[in-house]
Specification:
By secondary structure, this protein is α/β, with parallel strands linked by helices. The protein is built from 9 helices and 5 strands.
């Protein structure tokens, strides 16, 4: 998301709380524009093709990669059309199989959907252009930092795509434990390989 009036670019990797950030900003700021097309998950390199990055304050949401992998598993399993229909999906596929299949078949996986939750590719060679990282674990606090830096009034975080809040009928399916609950030794080792760069660059641990 790019705002030309307030001169900021927001990088929104999947499942990092970015929808809550976008809604909070949209509810309080006019003239929100998306570069070129209505795409919520553009890489910073794409924005660099349209704008001089030095003219913008750039921030990005990030999240513990282990937690993000569990989040995309539930999101794609229960909420992503057309996979709410039990007949169209192995409805009870375990998390371990999901992770193994990502490692074997790539981030597109066998459901034919994008399950790529890696954060570093969104920034890549432009890491030094990012002014602030908004951590999922501290969304409100980091949003306040960004607003203060931009000279904007602080605003209350607007809830984003929190699964069963958008689809209450799926509450009993979507409710989950802390992410550690889903990992055994093998699954954790595979996840470490899938998410190696994110873990190293953003300093997250299991």
């Amino acid at each position: 998301m790019v705002n030309l009036e307030n001169k900021y670019i927001f990088i929104h990797p999947r499942r990092t709380g970015g929808s809550a950030i976008e809604r909070s900003l949209n509810n309080n700021i006019d003239h929100i524009e998306l570069a070129g097309t209505k795409e919520y998950h553009w890489y910073l390199s794409t924005y660099a093709e349209h704008y001089n990055l030095d003219d913008f304050y750039i921030f990005c949401t990030i999240r513990n990669p282990y937690d993000t992998l569990v989040s995309i598993y539930y999101n794609r399993k229960f909420l992503f059309e057309p996979f709410r229909d039990k007949s169209s999906l192995k409805y009870d596929i375990p998390f371990s199989e999901f992770v193994e299949s990502l490692y074997t078949n790539g981030w597109e996986y066998t459901w034919g959907i994008n399950a790529d939750v890696r954060i570093f590719p969104y920034i890549g060679e432009y890491m030094d252009k990012v002014d602030h990282l908004i951590r999922f674990e501290n969304l409100q606090g980091d949003l306040n930092v960004v607003c203060n830096k931009l000279g904007l009034s602080e605003r209350e975080l607007v809830n984003g795509n929190r699964g069963f809040y958008n689809h209450p009928e799926l509450y009993h399916h979507y409710y989950r434990y802390r992410y550690q609950h889903y990992y055994d030794k093998k699954t954790k080792e595979i996840a470490e390989k899938l998410l190696k760069k994110d873990l190293e660059v953003f300093g997250y641990e299991y």
